[in-house]
Write a structure and sequence with these properties.
- By secondary structure, this protein is mainly beta.
- It is built from two helices and 13 strands; from the N terminus they run E-E-E-E-E-H-E-E-E-E-E-E-E-E-H.
- It has a single domain, classed as Jelly Rolls (Sandwich), CATH 2.60.120.10.
- The strands form four sheets. The chain has a six-stranded antiparallel sheet with strand order 3-4-5-13-8-11, with no helix packed on it. A three-stranded antiparallel sheet has the order 10-9-12, with no helix packed on it. The chain has a two-stranded antiparallel ribbon with strand order 1-2.
């Protein structure tokens, strides 16, 4: 699968006509050393209601996995087949690269090395391939066309298949879940 994502962004010209601002391969691509995930950030919002870009590339933002406060992030992630389970050191490196909240350290050990969570409501659409979404005690097998609405839960994406799985994500900043506060000491 070609990892490059064509991104078309529209705006208005000085006369108020709809025009194309960007059309080409999205430039904000990160390859995660652990797991080999390829994450392409397409656009971010830093507030809602959203402000419009007349020339700025809101997809060029340097953010972790979570959206900006009171904002949103739109990205596509390619998950290659998992070759081997990562070590604890590799897990720490991956979560640091992703800049995500780790599984609650005061609770049980995470189910999988890729387990993480974000303070966001996430909309995900499996575009191609298959993948397993691991939650604390359950697992869901997803195929192309399936959608997920994830509400700040611990989760891991694990591709146990033979082909890359592509998922489009929209993450929207949210309040901290009560479940997170209840498990703090």
């Amino acid at each position: 699968m070609d990892n490059r994502i064509r991104r078309v962004v529209t705006t208005h010209d000085a006369q108020g006509k709809a025009v194309v601002l960007f059309d080409g391969a999205a430039p904000n691509v990160k390859v995660r050393k652990v797991g080999g995930f390829v994450s392409t950030l397409l656009w971010t919002l830093d507030t809602a209601p959203a402000r419009y870009a007349s020339s700025e590339d809101f997809g060029a933002a340097a953010i972790g996995t979570a959206p900006l406060p009171r904002g949103a992030a739109f990205r596509v992630v390619d998950f290659p087949p998992l070759a081997a389970e990562p070590s604890a050191a590799e897990q720490r490196r991956l979560l640091d690269e992703m800049a995500v909240a780790r599984h609650d350290a005061n609770a049980e050990a995470p189910r999988h090395a890729f387990t993480h969570r974000t303070k966001s409501v996430d909309f995900a659409v499996v575009v191609a391939g298959e993948i397993d979404m691991l939650l604390d005690d359950t697992e869901v097998h997803l195929r192309a066309g399936d959608v997920v609405v994830q509400q700040a839960t611990n989760h891991a994406w694990v591709n146990r298949g033979t082909e890359t799985c592509r998922i489009a994500f929209v993450l929207i900043d949210a309040e901290e879940p009560a479940a997170w506060r209840q498990h703090r000491h």
